[in-house]
Write the structure tokens for this entry.
Amino acid sequence: MNLRWDDLKLFLAVHEQGSLSGAARLLKLGQPTLSRRIAELEAMVGEALFERQSQGAILTAAGQKLLPAAQSMAEWANEAELNVKKQTYLPEGKVRIAAPPGIAYEVVAPLAAKIRRKHPQIQIEVLSGVETLNLGRGEADLSLRTQKPNDVDLVCIDDVSSAMRVYTSKAYAAQLPPHPGLADLDWICWAAPYAELRTNQELSALIPNFKAAFTSDDYIVQVAACKAGVGAMILPQVLHHYAGLRELHGLHELDIDLGPDAVGSLYLVCHKRHRYLPKVQLVMDYISREFDSLRQDA
């Protein structure tokens, strides 16, 4: 049996996209052409590789057996391509970065300007949301996450941690009693569908009969409310020290201890097949340098 890399690349695309239609769009192939070539590969293997369902395609037992070898071939193909590139090769193309709303707004968007100034051939697409996108299915190239991944196919490239602190506008802080407690504050939190996020849950655990004064499903709206004096927010201390946030918002840190567990972490995550793509490596290097700056400001 002589399996060709071109066929296995199609097999991987269907697996990562979760459907023949998604893989066809990604590969810019007609779906009938892709279906025919997958059928030819299955005939060569002698078993069905995918179970077709109304919502997509999932691997059969035979597909699961073939997957590690196909993924290894993808890595070797990437390495071979890198080895034959000339030193003058300029990475180019779109890099999609998934990030929580606050990080997308405060860190990734300004970072895109730095990248574009030196590498205009790189296009940055920021996918801002609370949901965790699936890197294996190609939903993003890089992910900034608050939880460390446990998928063996995902690589944690870098991470940074920060104490979580309470912030208000200076005008709001001036109206508070001396040494205010958590229950003395009007809290700004997440609204549905994100009401179960960590900040809301921890405040509910710390404050009896907790009710937020202001909620929004948009991080920018929350910050605007905090800046306007509506109430208090919990934010990573390292971001407040970060030059952009300090100058833009002018928020005031209250001397309130949230406890030893009030620490947030941010992880830079990449799928192992994308790790050595030149355009992804370039953006990862910029993000790691930004993490260094955050650590210095901590």
In short: Residues 157 and 284 are 8 Å apart (CA to CA). The chain has three domains: 5-84, 93-158+264-297, 162-263. Residues 162-263 form a domain with the D-Maltodextrin-Binding Protein; domain 2 fold (CATH 3.40.190.10). Residues 243-248 have pLDDT under 50 and may be disordered.
